[in-house]
Amino acid sequence: MTTFEAQDLDPLTVAVLEGGESSERSISLESGAAVRAALAERGHKVIAVDPSEVDLSSFDWSGIDTAFIALHGFFGEDGQVQQILEDAGMPYTGSDPAAARLSFQKSAAKERFFQNYVPTPPYVLIHEGDTANGIMKKARSLGYPLAVKPDSQGSSLGVSVVQSPDELPEALTRCFHLEAFGLLEAGVLGSEWTVGIMDELMLPLIQVVPNRPFFDYQAKYADDTTHYQFEFDIPSDVVNSINQAARNAYDALKLQGVARIDLVLDRFNRPWVLEANSVPGMTSHSLVPKAAARIGISLGELCEQMLKRSLSATPQS
Fold first, then answer.
1. How far apart (Å, rounded) are the C-alpha atoms in residues 135 and 137?
2. What is the pTM of this model?
3. Which end of the chain has fewer beta carbons closer than 10 Å to its terminal beta carbon, N or C?
4. Active-site residue, selected from the candidate residues 18, 22, 23, 24
């Protein structure tokens, strides 16, 4: 594991992209506010830029050194804003358009995982136009319990864990309320884990212990009873297998900068990658800042390292 070395960064003018129009707008605003405060405290000039109020394609980027992407969900994590910034020649934090787009679409990411032998639960793609009987047959082919997920949402929005066929219709309604495509994913019973990665640096592994059936939106952002554990009673080789699965997922998607990989560890101590997040949250509840703080990296230092990488990254075509 590469160690983190805090380095002074000359004061920059940073556009923090936050808000937007996705269903994760409120979380994005929280992330943006936390990032702006952390960077301002370290002497940088920060400007909040909300794409719901400003057309980024015609925005005047002169005088701005780099953009910090704190946009979650549609537009922020699906490669769109990254492409606009590339076209404008503006450095930015995080992954390039192709990697962002791939990681945001769960079905595409899972196909890449399969191709690269990254363990991930079996799934089937569904559409709101499919018949109820057809979806029920697909569900039976996977077995219960299973997860119902929108294909392209974050923060566990629209996600349900379905224990029996009777629960499926309500879960589908919740999923299709957000978008037309969804996934039925085989349920893996076990403990939940997350790994933050910044290029070569693996942040400390976190076991997530929600006081709810699973780590859903409420558990992530509103429930103070959710526990985050950095010490756990499992063999070191199992810890290594979780970290290796996360690293393999990061590499398979060709992610860059800071990203977060979510996994589940089954009863046989086998890790399964659930999804990757190319623009992880930076709120007080967010896991990447918690993991960084565990090894003495403040949010300001973390954000500065992300800025430094954005300024040294090779432009993508």
1. 5
2. 0.91
3. C
4. 24
